[in-house]
Specification:
Layout (H helix, E strand, L loop, with lengths): L1 E10 L3 H19 L1 E7 L4 H7 L7 H6 L3 E6 L7 H15 L4 E7 L17 E7 L9 E4 L7 E4 L5 H16 L4 E6 L7 H13 L6 E6 H10 L6 E4 L1 H14 L7 E5 L7 E5 L16 H13 L3 H17 L13 H14 L12
Parallel strand pairs: 1-2, 1-3, 3-12, 5-10, 8-9, 8-10
Antiparallel strand pairs: 4-5, 4-11, 6-7, 11-12
């Protein structure tokens, strides 16, 4: 039986509520499908920052490098500037471990009503490939003449050939294995250096993938089309910022930001990848036990896939959909009255019904 060594970073706010819920479910998936987890938890968070002055210790990345994968909740807390929590923990992990793909499914699950009229489950089924290591999220820039009328701020974007090419190759390969359609998010009319470069690389790389049809769309028009004709999107490739914004919109279209997952992937598997929901620490509901655990659970589904447990991953996503489609057990963000614990229990129950036919593991008592 394979055992996977996972670093767990619950982080802040609802991260500390949804991560243990998802861990319980992943544990059970392992029992049923014949693998196990060896979890090591780290308390690196804004709370850690408050007491130590750093989001993680100096050797934090070296310690994480020892693990197979990283399972993260969310970071961010009132009183700590968001750039401190992001640049002190998440971004160093994504960059040091070359997690250059942030893969975000935008899929309408059975049992969820989209705020869009007339969209049925399966009617939205896209994968957004967000470039995750460079682009608009860069440390290059600065502030001058602070506090004076001449004050100025400069923020540089960084687009490298290596960085754009590898994101494009990943997206083209993915589209080739799906419906063969790729939309590239650009803004080459207004952003006149980096975005024309993005488009050029897209065309060059696209020349190697005859089986994929490409559509280049300005991000503003793409956002509108996400709402007007979401069924036409298969794979979308976008820069760091565009992908970030587009997937929050996408998450809203498929029901709630509370259900949307993501995988920060190092496709070459030289380093651990990191799995986390796209939502944040939600300070407005933290501590009330009502956070939707589905985004964290679905991130666990993506981790199972990455670990090579495709059948278990599919069973777990099916179990989540079974709960949503056949019961009213859902958290308030989806219009329900259930709490995190009730949704977790319901998914655990549904997972038993999705156990493999040859499973010899006893039914949970
Ligand atoms: N990857 C991350 O760790 C990450 C991502 C985004 C934001 N943040 C941080 O989180 C903090 C709050 O940011 P924000 O308010 O912009 O975004 P957020 O995603 O935390 O919350 C936005 C809204 O969605 C709701 N929501 C989010 N997740 C939910 C869930 N699982 N169940 C039910 N409702 C949910 C919240 O209650 C809130 O009303 C900030 O400090 C921000 O920097 C962290």
């Amino acid at each position: 039986m394979s055992t996977h060594r996972i670093a767990v970073l619950p982080g802040d706010g609802i991260g500390t509520e949804v991560v243990p819920a998802a861990q319980r479910i992943l544990e059970r998936a392992g029992d049923l499908f014949g693998f196990s987890f060896d979890w090591t938890e780290f308390d690196w968070s804004c709370e850690h920052y408050r007491t130590t002055g750093v989001m993680m210790p100096a050797d934090g990345l070296d310690r994480l490098a020892e693990f197979d994968q990283i399972f993260l909740g969310a970071v961010g807390a009132p009183g700590i500037p968001d750039h401190v929590s992001l640049w002190g923990l998440l971004i160093p992990i994504r960059r040091t471990f070359r997690q250059y793909i942030n893969l975000r499914p935008i899929k309408l699950l059975r049992g969820i009503d989209s705020p869009l009229r007339g969209v049925v489950p399966g009617g939205i089924d896209a994968l957004v490939v967000r470039e995750n290591n460079e682009g608009e999220y860069s440390e290059i820039g600065g502030r001058l003449y602070r506090g004076t009328p001449q004050e100025l701020a400069v923020q540089e974007s960084v687009f490298t050939r290596v960085g754009v090419e590898r994101a494009m190759h990943y997206a083209f390969r993915l589209a080739g294995g799906r419906r063969g359609k790729l939309a590239s998010a650009t803004k080459s009319n207004g952003i006149i250096h980096t975005m024309p470069f993005w488009d050029e690389v897209c065309r060059e790389v696209g020349g190697q993938y005859d089986d994929v049809e490409v559509e280049e769309l300005h991000i503003d028009a793409l956002a509108a089309m996400f709402v007007l004709r979401p069924h036409t999107f298969d794979v979308v490739v976008a820069s760091n910022l565009f992908g970030d914004i587009l997937t929050d919109l996408g998450a809203a279209l498929v029901g709630s930001i509370g259900i949307a997952p993501s995988a920060n992937l190092n496709p070459e598997r030289e380093y651990p990848s990191m799995f986390e929901p796209i939502h944040g620490s939600a300070p407005d509901i933290a501590g009330r036990g009502i956070a939707n655990p589905i985004g964290q659970i679905w991130s666990g589904v993506m981790m199972l896939d990455h670990l090579g447990h495709a059948a278990a991953a599919q069973a777990l996503l099916d179990a989540v959909e079974d709960v949503l489609a056949s019961s009213d057990v859902r958290t308030p963000d989806l219009g329900g009255k259930a709490d995190t614990a009730a949704v977790t229990a319901a998914v655990l129950g549904a997972l038993e019904d999705r156990r493999p036919a040859d499973s010899t593991v006893g039914v949970r008592g």
